[in-house]
Design goal:
The chain is of the alpha+beta class. It contains 18 helices and 20 strands. Strand 13 and strand 14 form a beta hairpin. The protein is rod-shaped, with a radius of gyration of 59 Å. It has five domains: 132 residues, Rossmann fold (3-Layer(aba) Sandwich), CATH 3.40.50.2300; 108 residues, PAS domain (Beta-Lactamase, 2-Layer Sandwich); 98 residues, PAS domain (Beta-Lactamase, 2-Layer Sandwich), CATH 3.30.450; 96 residues, PAS domain (Beta-Lactamase); 55 residues.
């Protein structure tokens, strides 16, 4: 629906336009009756809403001109005025053909309700448009109304002047103090007119906070400075003011000159004179920074909440009476906690230990008594697990103990691992002891050497061989204590450098013979630690082998002599006995050498 608004007050037009557009209709604006008539002819609106007192052509003249035009006379015409509101004026309006008369000011809801009632009656035929009175009668009544209105205005002005003189005398005493209070206030102090919703005053804080010069907004509607999303709240609170109510604290976002919206906290109240609401007075605190801080606090709280519930350990917050007042998800699940806000039975010992009182050695008791953190580990049959309980004290801003925080960790797997580790360490200790005993009691010479052929460690047998105290040997060159042949020493050193083992080799050292081998010892990741050299003394074996060789040669010699003996004729028998005895002795010796005894 197209609705034409005729009013010389641009702010009043803006408010009407806003009301109309909020109802989903199109508004056409005219600044006086003459312009309204022209736009009516050009746009053919569905409804005309007009003020009465306007320049060039007032509302009464506009109405008569529209009714005199057969193309316009059918358009509903409603007056919306705050000046001509007496019975005579309203009567003239209807006598001139108006469909309705609404007295200013009205709240948006009340205005639209009255307008709908007027239009509904017209459509239902309950109200018929009065045939306009004749020009002579119209001019007579119109002139009378204007003269009476002027006379009233004069009297009203005279009265106002007198009242103003008296008021000025009173105001002089308080105006300076009041003005100083308003002018120096860090908060914005404003006033609105309830007649047309215009801003009637602003203190300097408005300029300081918003950057707008005050003159740009005084005598303008408040709506354009309010964030569009907050406009419904602003209108709702304004309606309360119009109804004479004091709204609760509310927040609106206000446009600053930089284009940024600032958040203001409004405290407002109706200004009432002679029992009538004449305006709104309010104080606005700039809470933009506070809102930002609140948002940061909220975000930190959300982050903390997420972190709190992401911890896999059980975390519960307790008061001084052992009541659980907060728990993370892990604790709720593992302890089977109910919704804490729905039960008074939240004693921590009931859920942690399945008891009716704190158990002996409870860290919570210790923490509450000393105000210091406490820690202990137990196997808890109620939970069927080993747990580590850490109790941390909670203090208020005055450092008064107000409770504690429990951090409980399931250490069952750790305990099992520790048990296995302890057994492993025992096994290692036992194996090390057995190895040490074996190392120092074997008959072979055992030496540990690094890649530089220096001795890291040796056993007692090697120390006896070197004829040195065992603690003086580490760090010595192996070949300085075990003087083997140069070729053999070079071969062995090369194998050690390459981290390779060697076959058994026969070497001579210090007038003795040895079977010698070495094996590199590697740690994880194939890192070389040292080489183990084992030397077995085979001097006796070498001597036995030589004796065997000598005996075999002697035996061969005797056999040859025996062959010659058989050729001898004289002394044969005697010689045979001697040789048999010698052969027997040789065989016994040979048998001994072969067995190594």
């Amino acid at each position: 629906m197209k609705i034409l608004i005729a009013d010389d007050d641009p702010d009043a037009r803006n408010i009407l336009k806003l009301i109309i557009e909020m109802q989903g209709h199109e508004a056409i604006e005219a600044s006086d009756g003459l312009q309204g008539l022209e736009k009516t002819k050009a746009n053919r609106p569905d409804l005309i809403i007009s003020d009465i007192l306007m320049p060039k052509m007032d509302g009464f003249q506009f109405l008569r001109e529209a009714n005199s035009d057969k193309n316009l006379s059918a358009i509903p015409f409603v007056f919306y005025s705050s000046t001509y509101t007496g019975e005579e004026e309203i009567g003239l309006a209807f006598s001139s053909g108006a469909d309705g008369f609404i007295v200013k000011p009205k709240s948006p809801e009340k205005f639209w309700e009255e307008l709908n009632n007027i239009l509904s009656k017209r459509e239902e035929g309950k109200s018929k448009k009065t045939k306009p009175i004749k020009d002579e009668e119209y001019l007579k009544r119109y002139s009378h109304i204007v003269s009476v209105k002027l006379e009233e205005k004069v009297k009203e002005l005279e009265k106002m002047l007198e009242e103003r003189k008296q008021a000025e005398e009173t105001l002089k005493n308080s105006e300076a103090r009041y003005r100083n209070l308003i002018e120096t206030s860090p908060a914005v102090i404003y006033s609105l007119s309830t007649e047309n919703g215009l801003i009637t005053s602003l203190n300097p804080a408005f300029e300081t906070i918003t950057g707008w010069p005050r003159e740009e907004w005084i005598n303008r509607p408040f709506a354009p400075i309010v964030h569009p999303d907050d406009l419904s709240v602003a209108m709702k609170m304004y309606q309360k003011i119009l109804n004479g109510e004091t709204p609760p604290l509310y927040e609106l976002r206000i446009l600053s000159k930089s284009g940024e919206y600032l958040t203001g906290e409004f405290t407002s109240a109706p200004q009432i004179e002679n029992g009538k609401v004449t305006g709104e007075f309010g104080i606005v605190s700039n809470i933009t920074e506070r809102k930002k801080i609140e948002e940061k606090i909220f975000q930190i709280s959300q982050d903390w909440e997420h972190t709190f519930n992401s911890i896999t350990d059980m975390v519960t917050v307790h008061d001084k009476d052992w009541n659980i007042i907060r728990a993370n998800k892990a604790a709720e699940k593992m302890l089977g906690l109910p919704f804490l806000e729905k039960t008074a039975d939240t004693k921590c010992f009931k859920y942690y230990h399945g008891t009716e009182k704190p158990p002996e050695g409870c860290p919570s008791c210790q923490c509450l008594q000393t105000g210091k953190s406490a820690l202990f580990e137990i196997f808890e049959p109620h939970l069927n697990m080993f747990i580590e309980i850490r109790a941390i004290p909670r203090f208020d801003s005055d450092n008064n103990l107000i409770g504690l925080i429990h951090v409980v960790r399931d250490i069952t797997e750790r305990k099992k691992t520790e048990e296995k580790l302890n057994q492993f360490l025992k096994d290692i200790t036992k194996a090390k002891t057995e190895w040490e005993i074996t190392f120092d009691n074997v008959t072979e010479l055992i030496v540990l050497v690094d890649k530089d052929f220096r001795i890291v460690r040796c056993n007692k047998v090697f120390a006896e061989f070197s004829d040195k105290p065992i603690n003086e040997i580490p760090g010595s060159k192996f070949t300085d204590i075990f003087p083997m042949g140069e070729q053999d020493a070079g071969y062995l050193a090369e194998r050690i450098q390459k981290e390779e083992s060697s076959e058994w080799m026969e070497v001579a050292a210090a007038d003795r013979w040895f079977y010698l081998s070495h094996q590199p010892v590697m740690v994880p990741d194939s890192l070389f630690l040292y080489s183990v050299i084992i030397a077995t003394d085979i001097t006796a074996l070498k001597y036995s082998q030589q004796k065997l060789i000598d005996s075999e040669a002697e035996l061969k010699k005797r056999v040859k002599e025996l062959e010659k003996f058989y050729e001898m004729a004289v002394g044969r028998e005697l010689k045979m006995k001697e040789m048999k005895k010698e052969i027997k002795d040789l065989r016994e010796n040979l048998s001994l050498y072969k067995t190594g005894n």
